[in-house]
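[Target chain]
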Amino acid sequence: MEEIDHYIVLGLVTGEEGSKLTEKEISTAYRKKAIELHPDKNLNDPDAPAKFQKLRVSYEILKDPKARKEFDDLLRVRREKKVRDKQFDAKRRRMMSDLEERERASFVDPEKKARDEEEAIMKKLAEEIARIKASLAKKPVFEKEERRENVGGVGGVALDKSKVLKVSWEKGDSEYSASRLRELFEEFGDVEDVVIKGSKKKSSCSSALVVMGSKEDAVAATGVMIGDLSNPLLVLPLEPTKAMPSVRAQAPVERDEAPMGNVVGAGFQAFEDSVLDKLRKAAEKQKTNKKET
């Protein structure tokens, strides 16, 4: 079995210090490493998908309490073995060998006991890794840009629409990919899914659904995210509530649109086009002001 230190794979400290890391610290390290190793950012590396898959397996092992305990026990046994090896010099090893020969019947061989314990732990860990890999095999290796018409839930479970954002932008040269949207919205928390929606040919806008990790993350992103200045984003909640902040950009935007809760059907398309047009003008004005200064 290949000796892989899953803490090191995620760029974390290992050993006894690694066993004390919190789940949040592990998740944060995984997100940073995932951005670095994502195949979309390493198009010239043919091994990028394999490296990303190795990262995911290590993360799933450390995120799973049972698998992580087995791995921590394996590291502990190996550390203890190294300490014992350093303590026994050649003379003491000969003495221990003679002593074990004389007292083998009444004393348990500490080396054999350590080997048996290590083998038992490695067997359990291998079973946990096989279980996790089997589970990962049912998921995509990395995020692909999928064009689906609807997001109804995950695994048959109804989706909490309060944490879903509808993101729109103008069609053109500066388009947004699923990986780019994920990167932008991960500044506000976990992103569970990004779905690029199919748009009508006559529509001047592209859109996507971004599923945040929580309702609070969705609210935070709605109040701040505008994306790239060259093509600003219009970020709206999938199900607007009275408590949801209004859409705003870094530059002032006129607010003469109808309330979001009353915009439906063809009127919603007009609302999107209007706000996107004003966001674009605000961005152009901001760029012009920067050049003048």
The first helix runs from residue 6 to 9.
